[in-house]
């Protein structure tokens, strides 16, 4: 049963260090995952250490389930042409409270906030700006 829809607005990132052998991370993109659903941003090219996507992605929210659910995972990747894409780092955003508030109030929003990007070795690698809006599905009662 779908209870609503969540819009994830990936705005920009800064301070992402290079992973390329020749010194520049030129092709970053974001994989956004929520409850088995996944979207991929476009590749941001030629912006040095600051990258702008300004893209919105829609996810279906089915139920409230366990407390370990309801997290958005954003994986920052560097697109490579001749080898596998490089994992830059990720951030996890827990949204259960946002969903609860949206069901109670009709809509809930997290304004653009900065989230630290964590590398595989648990060190920080810059930040990503993300805004989230949850809108519950409207059900109409008929008499």
Automatic annotation (TrEMBL):
Gene3D superfamilies registered for this protein in UniProt: C2 domain (2.60.40.150)
GO MF terms held by the record: metal ion binding
InterPro entries noted in UniProt: C2_dom (IPR000008), C2_domain_sf (IPR035892)
SUPFAM superfamilies found in the cross-reference section: C2 domain (Calcium/lipid-binding domain, CaLB)
SMART domains: C2
Assigned keywords, A-Z: Calcium, Metal-binding
Protein's name according to its UniProt entry: C2 domain-containing protein
Pfam families to which the protein is assigned, alphabetical: C2
Residues in C2 domain copies: 1-108
């Amino acid at each position: 049963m779908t209870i609503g829809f969540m819009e994830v607005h990936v705005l920009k990132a800064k301070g992402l260090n290079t992973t390329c052998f020749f010194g520049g991370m030129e092709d970053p993109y974001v994989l956004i995952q929520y409850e088995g659903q996944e979207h991929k941003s476009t590749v941001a090219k030629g912006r040095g250490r600051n990258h702008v996507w300004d893209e919105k992605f829609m996810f279906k929210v089915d139920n409230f389930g366990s407390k370990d659910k309801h997290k958005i995972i954003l994986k920052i990747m560097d697109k490579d042409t001749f080898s596998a894409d490089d994992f830059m780092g990720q951030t996890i955003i827990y949204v259960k409270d946002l969903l609860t508030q949206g069901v109670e109030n009709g809509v809930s929003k997290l304004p653009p906030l900065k989230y630290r990007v964590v590398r595989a070795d648990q060190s920080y690698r810059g930040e990503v700006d993300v805004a989230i809006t949850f809108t519950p599905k409207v059900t109409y009662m008929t008499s």
